[in-house]
Every structure is written in C-alpha cells, then in structure tokens.
C-alpha cells in the first residue's frame, strides 16, 4: 500500500483546516487533521471520490476544499486546473474540481473516451490540400505513405476551426460547446491550408481561373489571410464563459508569380512572423528546380489592406523581412532539389527550423538515391533576425532493425520517470526523433500536452502481419510509477476506436480531449 508516486508532494507539508476535531476518535475523520491527511495520502483518486459515499460525516470531510486541494496536489500536480489556479488557491472550488479531474484521468489511463462527439464537415469542392512528395514507403509489396495530407480543420487552445456542412468556417469552443462565425468568405475560393497558433488563424487560399484545367495547367495567385482569435474579456466578465472574438487582421500575397497545382509550399507562423518554403519544379531544366526559396514575413501589425481585392497601389501591411534564395539554401544545406527530404517547418521568435527525414524503404521518383540505413531525421535552425550560426541536429545513423538506434527515444518501456525525451524536448531545434522512437514502427502523429505530461500517439508498421496499417494509439504518462517502480503507462485504445480517430493521420488536443478524423471524413472529438 506504500505507493510513492514520482512528482507527488510531501504529505507532511499540509494545509490546515478549520474542521472541528472532537476529543474522541471513533472514526478516521476524528483523527487530528495532519494524521488524517497522512492516511488518505495512500488512497487512489477513485477511492478518495468513493469515500464521499460512506457517510454524511465522510462526505463533509472529503468534500472540504482543504482535503480536495491536498488530493489534487498529491495526485494531479500538473493538470491545467492546478496551473491556472496557482495564484488563487483559496478561492477555487476544489471539492467540485477534484472529482472531475479524477474522472478525466480514469478515462485517460484506461484509453477510453468518456464521450465521443462527431461533427460533419464540408467535403465537397472548396478545399485542395498541398500534394505529397512523389515518394512512398514500400516493403515486400506493401505500400504506405510517409507524409499525411493537410486537414480542412485546426485546433489550438480548445478552439476548433472547421468548415461546416453549409460551406462556412466556424469556431467551436470545445469546453462550452459554443460556436462563433469566422469572417472568411469562401465563395469563389479554394483553401489550401489553415492553421491556428498563438491566437492567430491563417488561411492560405487561391481563386481559381475560369475555364482552367484543374490539377494540370492552372496557374493561380495564392494569398494568406490572417485573423485574430482571442477570448472575449467583456463577455466573460458578464458571465458568458468561452466567448471568442474572431476578426480580420491582415492579408498578403504568398509569391509574386502564380502557383501551379504541382508546386509544394510549406508554412508556419507565430504571433509576429510567418514563414513560407516554396518549391517549384514545372518548367525547370533537367536536374534543376525552377524556384526554391524560404521567405519570412513580419505580421505583428494589423492592416486593413487586402491585395486579393484592392487592385490599386500596395498599402502598408505584412512585409517581407528575409528571403533565402537557392544559393543561400544550398549553403545552409537545406536545399531540397529533385530528391526532397522536407517534412515540416517551424518558427520561434527569431529562428526558422526545417525538419527533414528519409527512410530506408522509400521508393518513387523523388525517393533518395542512397537511402539511409534505417530512418534518418534532422533539424536545421536558421536565424532570420540578425546574423548567427546555423543550428544542426540529426539522428538515425546507428543501430539496426533488431534494436532501437535512437539514443534519445529508446524503448517506450525503458524511459525515465518524467519521459523527458518527448515532454521536455518540445523545442523545434531538436531532430524529430519521436518519428522513429519504436523503429521499425513509424509514429505517424501524436498529441503532446507537455505541461500535463500527457501524450497520445499513433504508430504503424506495414511489414508486420499482426498489425494493421496503424498501430493502435496509446497514452503515455510520466507522472507516476506503479507498485514496482516501472514507468510504463502506455495503454492501447480499442480496435474500433482506431478508425474513428486517426483515419486522416492527424490528432490534436490536450489532456481534456483528443480530436481526429474518422474514415468518413467527419471530425471526431473524444472527451476524457
């Protein structure tokens, strides 16, 4: 019974209560308060909630804010409720919060959603994601993709942006289930990508030419439209929780020349900057790429100017502050050429990061001529503000298929108590070793709530006959050790939940919910 959980607070450091203690101790609740807390420290969260049903006296004691706060401090020190109430402990309704959090982690630890919600989204014309590289994984006549397509929805800070079944983008607050309109007119526009991050929604789109041949000869101008997405302090002060204000921020042209459908471009943004990596091949001589460049915009200031509508002289708006041309990219060793390795792009306040990867089983016109021994990943960081050295990190040169070759990830069953690899290394400058942490399995996607130490991941290995195309998603915790001191809390979802969540190859969320897409193209929200 003497279970000591990693990260749990010292039980001797207690918060005193005003509960009256009688001279006789005919019940456990009659013990001195400090002794009582030492006893209930060994109860599990579920047992602590069930103790409220024993008697009226026990209910009074176990529903007191003092006892509930100590239970929260012992069992769930990392949850968002504890983090958000760090400076306001005495005014929080801990008796109400503790059973809700205990219920959430009961479902998380059993990899079972408490409630599953399905949302229909617009699946007709109006969305054309960026094409994948012309390469794929092949092993023993089995095929699989290395990359996954872009989604027509995005999620950040509990706000889901999606295109509803009447062809309009809406914002859905997952906590309050309230919906808000996104002021983006979809009429006559084809969306390529949308992303919500740092309180800014960016939608990349183009207006198709009339009488053009789709996917082949059409050349179109692409634009990015940004919106501020912030919580309404006025509405929340009036008692309307979960209110959001979404308003136009700025718009800019992605490139001075039109794009073809076969062109690839990748982007990222923060609250102050936007980065675009452009790769164009059509029309280039053999062995060359027509255009390959990395461009950084300053988007910190709002501007009413819309280049897609205003044909007059350009007005102040987002401006380009840095451009890396082909020679610059060649010097920095991130130029892709005709055998691209590009996987993703990231930004922080002063640097842009390019993530590349290659695999031993890659094949196709754009597959590497000399594939790596296993699975190779690297990250290259480049400062776009001022002058500085290039940052470089790589992994994948050691080991074989019989043992994990990544010195950072290792085996999931052998990780340390805090799972420091995935929860502590969220900086984009590190090579994305999470992709091959269980080689030969490929981690397709994962949802990481680093502050709560909660992770949900989906893996696949098409070469194993006992496995489907996706290895079952699992939940990884770094909060507590079990009775034997083993830090292994990965639990597998049921088979029938797999297709409901990771059919698109993407999952997002936090400790409260995970959002994905089912096989019918509908959005699935699994609440814990």
TrEMBL record:
Residues 25-72 form the F-box domain. Coiled coil: none annotated. It holds the Pfam family F-box-like. It comes from the Eukaryota. This is F-box domain-containing protein. It comes from Xylaria bambusicola.
């Amino acid at each position: 019974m003497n279970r000591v959980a990693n990260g749990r607070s010292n039980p001797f450091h207690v918060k005193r209560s005003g509960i009256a203690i009688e001279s006789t101790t005919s019940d456990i609740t009659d013990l001195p308060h400090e002794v009582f807390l030492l006893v209930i420290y060994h109860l599990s969260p579920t047992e602590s909630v069930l103790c409220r049903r024993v008697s009226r006296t026990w209910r009074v004691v176990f529903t007191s804010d003092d006892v509930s706060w100590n239970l929260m401090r012992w069992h769930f020190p990392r949850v968002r409720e504890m983090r958000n109430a760090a400076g306001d402990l005495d005014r929080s309704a801990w008796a109400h919060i503790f059973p809700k959090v205990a219920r959430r982690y009961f479902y998380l630890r059993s990899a079972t959603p408490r409630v599953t919600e399905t949302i229909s989204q617009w699946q007709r014309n109006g969305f054309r994601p960026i094409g994948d590289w012309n390469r794929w994984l092949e092993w023993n006549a089995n095929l699989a993709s290395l990359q996954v397509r872009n989604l027509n929805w995005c999620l950040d800070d509990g706000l889901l942006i999606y295109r509803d079944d009447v062809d309009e983008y809406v914002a859905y607050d997952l906590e309050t289930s309230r919906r808000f309109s996104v002021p983006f007119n979809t009429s006559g526009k084809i969306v390529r990508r949308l992303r919500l991050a740092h309180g800014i929604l960016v939608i990349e789109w183009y207006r198709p030419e009339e009488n053009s041949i789709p996917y082949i000869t059409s050349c179109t101008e692409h634009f990015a439209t940004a919106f501020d997405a912030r919580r309404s302090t006025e509405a929340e002060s009036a008692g309307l929780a979960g209110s959001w204000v979404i308003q136009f921020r700025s718009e800019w042209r992605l490139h001075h020349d039109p794009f073809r459908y076969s062109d690839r471009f990748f982007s990222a943004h923060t609250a102050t900057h936007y980065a675009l990596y452009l790769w164009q091949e059509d029309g280039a001589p053999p062995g060359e790429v027509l255009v390959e460049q990395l461009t950084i915009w300053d988007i910190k200031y709002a501007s009413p100017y819309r280049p897609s509508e205003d044909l007059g002289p350009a007005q102040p708006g987002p401006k380009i502050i840095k451009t890396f041309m082909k020679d610059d990219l060649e010097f920095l060793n991130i130029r892709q050429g005709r055998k691209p390795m590009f996987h993703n792009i990231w930004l922080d306040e002063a640097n842009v990061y390019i993530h590349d990867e290659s695999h031993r089983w890659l094949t196709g016109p754009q597959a590497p001529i000399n594939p790596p021994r296993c699975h190779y990943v690297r990250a290259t960081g480049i400062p776009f503000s001022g002058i500085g050295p290039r940052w470089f990190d790589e992994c994948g040169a050691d080991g074989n298929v019989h043992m994990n070759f990544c010195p950072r990830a290792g085996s999931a069953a052998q990780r340390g108590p805090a799972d420091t690899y995935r929860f502590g290394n969220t900086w984009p400058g590190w090579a994305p070793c999470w992709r091959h942490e269980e080689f030969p399995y490929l981690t397709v996607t994962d949802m990481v709530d680093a502050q709560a130490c909660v992770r949900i991941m989906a893996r696949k290995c098409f070469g194993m006959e006992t496995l489907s195309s996706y290895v079952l998603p699992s939940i990884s915790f770094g909060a507590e050790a079990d009775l034997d001191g083993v830090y292994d809390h990965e639990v597998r979802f049921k088979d029938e939940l797999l297709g409901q969540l990771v059919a698109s190859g993407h999952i997002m969320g936090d400790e409260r919910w995970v959002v994905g897409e089912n096989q019918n193209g509908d959005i699935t929200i699994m609440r814990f």
